[in-house]
UniProtKB/TrEMBL annotation:
GO terms for biological process: cardiolipin biosynthetic process. It is found in: Mitochondrion inner membrane. This is cardiolipin synthase (CMP-forming). Keywords: Lipid biosynthesis, Lipid metabolism, Membrane, Mitochondrion, Mitochondrion inner membrane, Phospholipid biosynthesis, Phospholipid metabolism, Transferase, Transmembrane, Transmembrane helix. The lineage of its organism: Eukaryota, Metazoa, Ecdysozoa, Arthropoda, Hexapoda. It comes from Anopheles farauti.
Amino acid sequence: MLLALGTHTVRRSVPVLSGVWEVRAEFRARASAFCPPGWLDQRRYTSGGKKKEPRIVAVKSVEGSELLQNVLQKNKQLLQERRDVLVRDIRERKEKVKERVEEVIERENVATVPNLLCIGRIVASPYLGYVIVQGEFRLAMGMLIVAGLTDLADGLIARHWPNQASRLGSFLDPMADKVLVGSLVIAMSYIDLLPLWLTAMILFRDVFLIGAGFVIRYISLPQPRTLSRYFDVTHATAQLAPTFVSKLNTAVQLVAVAATLGAPIFNYVDHAYLHGLWYLTGFTTVAAALSYLTNKDTYKILRKKSS
């Protein structure tokens, strides 16, 4: 009887268990409509009442992967742009530092005794011309002698004391001679002591050489070419080397000017020897101009033009 009762009990428990599983399946179906997928699988409980550890489900969506790729690509582009800007800035600063160093190397001391003597001669030349126009020939002769002595002195000082020599002096010395001679010939032509044709030849040659000096300065000046750097006398870029004919012409011009200035003092105005000296001065003036055109060693660029 017990066996029969046990069998009956087993038979009756089977429909009960199947009903429980059906209710559970229906509950899961309805709960899945309101809960995220996999939520019921992530939190399960054992028969002992202990909670199981949730399973972490790694979900990789296509949209998230594309968004991550875009962010990484943008960050990479930003880093490349910043790197390029940094490299370009470093190169520019390096070039500026190099240029500053070169400028410091090329700068020289211009406050020398020969340069000061040349500047004094340039400043005094217009006043000397004014004295001649006023008829003060003896005073003008004395000033001319002083100017000639300063011309000799600056050359001797520059040769015997190397620290007093400068590249600026190679331009100032001939410039002072040209300004002095130009002031004298203009003043003497104004009062009819000197022929006009000789004055025109001397002035034309001097203006041509001064213009060539400005061109040489522009060519030899490295980039950037600015007005402040162009007229910076401490930044030497070229050196002038006068020719022998040019030096001879300067000496002949000074002798002719002094002889013409002394004519009204010693009463030999319009003398034949004076005319011969004028023609000799004109010839040497033309020869000196040609020597500058044909001789390539009259100037030297101290620094090549930077690319």
